[in-house]
Design a protein that fits this description.
The N terminus is likely disordered. The protein has about 700 residues and is α/β, with parallel strands linked by helices. Strands 2-3-4-1-5-6-8 form a seven-stranded mixed beta sheet, with helices on both faces. A two-stranded antiparallel sheet has the order 7-9. The chain is elongated and about 90 Å long. Helix 8 packs across helix 9 and helix 16 crosses helix 17. The protein starts with a helix and ends with a helix. The protein has 29 helices and eleven strands.
Length: about 700
């Protein structure tokens, strides 16, 4: 039983309800409003796809609601579709809610009809009725119920309208108070004959454990994963039954005689379902305003056009960076002042307690100071960037980015969805790696994972911004400095995207050979972002989560750094010895040994790279903070920095190994040490090559 594999805690009195639906239909809102805070999350057994289930009560009966992955179909093309299909088929759910979009009913009915072939205990939840009303779309819910043969409930989950009626219908179906009679889907004559041949042999074997008609269709289809799942559920091998095998062969020969091969068979099944959904939709849906989506199409005419799409995307990206850079400066300084004030008080406390100097230095100057740097540098920009990113996500703009970049990724033999995972990487590369789950093809998913680090995460932005400001824009007055900084930063990001495409192409021609797959990309309607949800989701689910994870790895890093900086060999610290060893290599790349050492020690958290460079140059045993970037610039100039050093540092910041958190995430997602090592080496090799070419080209041209 799948609910047992999910470790759902249920009693014999509890009722299990599956919640299915297309992406972007408000399924999560329905789930959240029904279950409230009574939720549990994890991974589906043997999968990297997240599951969620929660509970609610109705008429003193406990209902466990299982939120299935959003999917357009139950004919498996992805992990999500396989999970949704298997739970509906074999999860022993007492009822299945299929959530559909009232503004796009025709497309959504495909999933409803497929579900009706598997189970009769279905309740159709027509959500987003409020949006349909605004667009003057009318749906005859009673007629829809009559056409489908199952209960249909209209809801506006965001406003919590219709949910009580939905709960009541689920109760009636699961308790057999009403018995749905789902519409029998009739295919063309020869296909029906073939189904009946198989079903006559199959019914005695199944004994009502599964719908014999649906299983007959799947056996004729020959899709291996579903047949394996059916055999596992029944604990028998259907194809070893000679009588059934002969029936399948007879049915397939009948189809073959009528020029219906296995691929054509599936096409006919899908075409019929789509056609039936279209017919039902025309009967029950009335468009009182034929131009209801005219405004969306007008906007998309520019947003997704070949001429304006990319330039508008770059302008928007520059604007986000400008807001982040400008807005984060003052809060970051305030936070740093507050945290370092606490550091002084901690020092006073240790002194008053008479603690050993080494203990104070390890805990306060090592661990606490590292954490203070990470928090003060990461939190303000994340608290600005993530809400802006979530705002665009809620608005419906991110799928348009994937649409605009799809052609470029296809030319690189990668998947257009990689554009979405790349965007997630701006906030945190680990989050971007997790986001690669949305890519169906394993080959393309691995390419996306390996190249995700070519866009800078929130930990690397402070390095880029600091170097840009100190060496290229700090002398510009007022708003001109921040605008120019945003433009340079955007150009750096574009370079990262170009390198992502290049490396994706190289991987697809070498270790991950293949051609780009096709995929369904829905451009959802533009929706007014819910500001409250945007702030809560971005701050608690993203900002604090990423910050907490960074702090977890930064604390032990602070201890190691302090030890290396304070233990001397021949009157020189271990840190300086290591930097001296790396110096010749660093010079080849336009940097020095201390910078390379800072990147290596910054492996747990990139945020501490600049503080490490400062600490090394000042020959100090703890990290320093400066009152202004001018002081920091003078320190760097005194230690041999030039504009070439600055550019090389920016390039290596953009192209170097993933941080510890990202590496652990890659290992977990790929379940392979091989791909984790390649994900570590690929950006590092690119960084070394790019920096070497740049530094030595500049040198040959006589610019330094």
């Amino acid at each position: 039983m799948l609910e047992n594999e999910l470790k759902i805690k249920k009693t014999s009195e509890d009722r299990v309800v599956a919640l299915a639906g297309n992406p972007n239909v408000g399924k999560s809102t329905v789930f959240n409003n029904l279950t409230g805070l009574k939720q549990h999350t994890g991974n589906w057994p043997g999968k990297t796809v997240t599951n969620a289930y929660g509970s609610y009560t109705c008429n003193d009966k406990n209902f466990i609601l299982v939120d299935l992955p959003g999917t357009y179909s139950l004919m498996v093309n992805s992990i999500e579709e396989e999970i949704a299909r298997d739970f509906v088929c074999f999860g022993s759910a007492d009822a299945t809610i299929v959530v559909v979009d009232a503004t796009s009913l025709e497309r959504n009915l495909n999933l409803v009809l497929q579900t009706l072939e598997i189970t009769k205990n279905v309740i159709v939840c027509v959500n987003l009725m409020d949006e349909a009303y605004k667009k003057k779309i009318s749906i005859d819910l009673d007629l829809l119920s009559k056409e489908l043969g199952v209960p249909v409930v209209g809801t506006s989950a965001l406003k919590e309208e219709g949910l009580e009626e939905l709960i009541e219908e689920v109760y009636k179906v699961s308790e057999d108070i009403i018995e749905p009679y789902p519409r029998k889907i009739i295919y063309e004559e020869k296909i029906e004959e073939a189904i009946q041949i198989v079903e006559s042999s199959l019914s005695p074997i199944l004994k009502d454990r599964l719908d014999s008609r649906w299983v007959s269709i799947k056996l004729l289809d020959g899709e291996k994963t579903i047949i394996q799942s059916i055999n596992k559920f029944l604990n028998i091998d259907l194809e070893k039954n000679m009588y059934l095998r002969d029936s399948i062969l007879k049915a397939k020969n009948l189809l073959k005689e009528n020029n219906i091969d296995p691929i054509f068979f599936r096409d006919k099944i899908v075409t019929h379902l789509v056609s039936l959904g279209e017919k039902i939709s025309k009967k029950v849906v009335t468009f009182n305003n034929k131009d209801y989506n005219k405004m969306d199409r007008k906007i998309d005419k520019y947003i997704t056009s070949k001429k304006y799409g990319i330039p508008l995307m770059l302008v928007l990206l520059s604007l986000i960076f400008w807001i982040t850079i400008t807005g984060a400066n003052y809060p970051s300084q305030l936070l740093a002042d507050g945290l370092f004030f606490i550091q002084d008080k901690l020092t006073d406390l240790f002194m008053s307690l008479g603690s050993p100097i080494w203990l104070h230095d390890i805990l306060v100057l090592g661990i606490y100071k590292t954490l203070a740097w990470v928090v003060s540098v990461m939190l303000p920009p994340m608290a600005i960037f993530f809400p802006l990113f979530t705002f665009l996500e809620d608005l419906g703009y991110l799928p348009r980015i994937a649409f605009n970049l799809d052609g470029y990724f296809k030319k690189s033999s990668a998947c257009g969805k990689q554009a979405l995972t790349m965007c997630m990487g701006f906030g945190c590369n680990a989050a971007g790696v997790i986001g690669c789950r949305i890519i169906d093809s394993e080959r393309e998913r691995l390419i996306a994972v390996i190249t995700n680090n070519f866009v800078p995460c929130n930990g690397r932005f402070p390095i880029l911004i600091a170097v840009i400001t100190m060496f290229f824009t700090g002398f510009l007055p007022g708003i001109f400095g921040s605008v120019f900084s945003a433009l340079i930063l955007t150009s750096t990001i574009v370079l990262g995207v170009v390198m992502t495409l290049f490396v994706s192409k190289v991987l697809s021609k070498t270790v991950l050979k293949g051609i780009p797959s096709t995929f369904t990309l829905e451009l959802p309607p533009y929706r007014k972002p819910r500001i409250g949800k945007v702030i809560v989701h971005s701050i608690f689910d993203r900002t604090l989560f990423v910050l907490g994870r960074a702090m977890l790895v930064a604390a032990p890093a602070g201890l190691i750094i302090w030890i290396m900086a304070n233990i001397n060999i021949g009157n020189i610290s271990i840190l300086s010895h290591a930097a001296a060893f790396l110096n010749p290599f660093g010079k080849l790349l336009g940097m020095d040994g201390y910078i390379i050492m800072a990147f290596i020690l910054g492996f747990p958290a990139n945020e501490i790279v600049i503080p490490l460079i400062i600490m090394s140059y000042m020959a100090s045993g703890s990290m320093f903070e400066f009152d202004s970037l001018l002081e920091l610039r003078n320190l760097l100039l005194d230690n041999g920095w030039t504009w070439v050093t600055a550019v090389s540092t920016m390039l290596f910041t953009l192209f170097h190994f993933p941080c510890a958190t990202t590496c652990l995430t890659i290992k977990k997602e790929t379940e392979s040490l091989k791909w984790t090592i390649l994900s570590f080496l690929a950006p590092t090799i690119v960084g070394i090559v790019v920096c070497f070419i740049f530094a030595n080209t500049v040198k040959l041209l006589g610019f330094i």
